[in-house]
Amino acid sequence: MHCRVVVEAAVPVFDVETEDEAIRIAISKTGEMLNPDLNYVEINMGERTSPGGEELPPAFIAADEALVALELEMTVFNVEREEHASRIARKEIGQRLENIPLEVLSVTVLEDDEDEDDDSYTDDNSDADNDSDVDDDSDNETSTDESARDDETPNEDAGGETDDDDVLPEFEDLLE
After folding, report:
1. pLDDT confidence bin for 118, thresholds 50/70/90
2. Tens-digit pLDDT profile for residues 93-107
3. In the CATH hierarchy, which top-level class contains the domain 3-109?
4. Could you give the residue range(s) of every CATH 3.30.70 domain in the chain?
5. Among 58, 93, 116, 119, which lies 20 to 30 A Cα-Cα from 16?
């Protein structure tokens, strides 16, 4: 099962005068700490509310110092439980964001979307196999074409896109 985990971070920012400046600096600072290792983590402004339900800006400024609420989203693949996904996300993000408090806000299971993708992937592959069989008959090199087709089939779908799009950039070198 795959899960989308949202983690809230309280990022301190120093020497700022406005909330917008604090938010920009906090996002930049967080991006520098996460990249290049975790460039797949999405950084968004956090949402804060008062006890009365009134929306507040994500930055709190006092004495030219700010505390900015940011939401960090990442997808965790092949986990057994939602708790496992939240632990992995906290560990991965927390290792790069030293001395910044983190709290898991939500864990969303993405399993339903993956099942639909798997079904369409299977249908696309059967069409590709049927097209390749026609080529095999005309070339009379069945064994060579089958091995070439086996190499191409898992990497291509009907749109011509490859499964390499699903691979994180830092792992592309390992697959080549």
Report:
1. very low
2. 999 998 999 999 999
3. alpha beta
4. 3-109
5. 93
